[in-house]
Amino acid sequence: MKRLIASMVGLLGLMASAAPVLSPQGIIVNPVPTDLDVQTWLDRDPSGLGNATYFFGDKIKIYTRVNQNAYVYLFNINADGQIDLILPNAYNQNNYLRAGETRVFPEPGARYEFTISGPAGVDQVLAVASRTPLSLAQIADIKSGQMRVQGASNLARALSIVVTPLPDRDWVSDVVRYNVQPHWVSNPEPPVVVPRPPIFFITPMPGYGVLWEDREDTEYRVAYRGGDVEQIFSYYHRDLLSKGWVKVNFKSKGGKKNLAYDAEYRRGGDKLEVSVSPRGGEMVVKLEWGK
Length: 291
What we know:
22 strands; globular; mainly beta
């Protein structure tokens, strides 16, 4: 790999009938809420907040876990767009995880290890979990570890083709980011840390017309020009999961024409309440942070 180098030997798709959402960072997101969940984190970032920093030459371990039986695919996306396939790989093609199972890469006793190299910047590890196996034939040669696509946007497009035939709720993705710095940097930039309250950094959903926004110290509200409750809620749900929040409560109310969602998230001692509800011709999202 360019960034994740196999020390001993070279180490060596995803959205349903609802079209996958492609983020500016080249990450695919399922806009449909699903009870399948995959989590990804690093040895220096067990909470998955994206605030870990690694220096050239450092070793790195990557973790993943699912809440239901699923096939998991892991990709490392370098700051320069280089893509590396973490799972499955030439040494381990078993990417089926049981519900609640946690895997670490490299595995204990593995014949390879991951070593950080250049360039400096922000890297990402993308996890995709599916209830059924995905075909990566057009994306990578698993036996040799050679990627057939490079660049985050190209990977996202290729994966979206792979997952499009799947039922809406049968796949999900997660991403964790980490900083890479050369050792010789005398004053490295501080790691990217999710601030408190984190709602300041939640942006409107791409592709939806924004009527108004209201940002306060502990509350954020935005109104869209109509829209689908499930898709809008899923956008904020995935954003919160990527920042380390865990959904602890969820309920829906109303009928088909006035369906609304309410959810509660926790991260440590913090609480975040999220609501998505129609008001006249608007679809209003409210996030309120507290303890």
